């Protein structure tokens, strides 16, 4: 990526694209993707990066002492919670 494009991405605060541009360009070239598909992949990565940064910021601001995913939760500790029912409810959100 040229320095000019890197500078533009920084100005536009598109840091997610900066980190993965070469990988996506190689993937697009190997799969012979068109410009729109290539742009879609870049924007998808930017969106993922922003969502991850937003989540990290929210967790940090909430002063959560540790982060635990549902996969790590010990449902045997709280038998009143039914794992399948909880997962069904989360998927609906």
Features of this protein?
0% strand, single chain, 93 residues, elongated, mainly alpha
Describe this structure in words.
This protein is an all-alpha fold and 93 residues long. The chain has one domain (3-92). The chain is built from 4 helices and no strands. The protein has helices at residues 3-11, 15-30, 35-61, 83-92. Helix 2 (15-30) runs antiparallel to helix 3. The longest helix has 27 residues, at 35-61. It is elongated and about 55 Å long. It starts with a helix and ends with a helix. The mean pLDDT is 86.
**Total count of helical runs of at least 4 residues:** 4
Shape: elongated
Q: State the oligomer.
A: single chain
How can the largest sheet be summarized? none
Radius of gyration from the CA trace?
Answer: 19 Å
Tell me the β content: under 5%
Mean of all residue-level pLDDT scores:
86
Helical/strand content category? mainly alpha
- Counting DSSP E segments of at least 2 residues, the number of strands comes to 0
Q: Could you spell the SSE succession in H and E letters?
A: HHHH
Residue stretches low in confidence (pLDDT < 50, at least 5 long) are none
Helix percentage range: 55-70%
Number of domains: 1
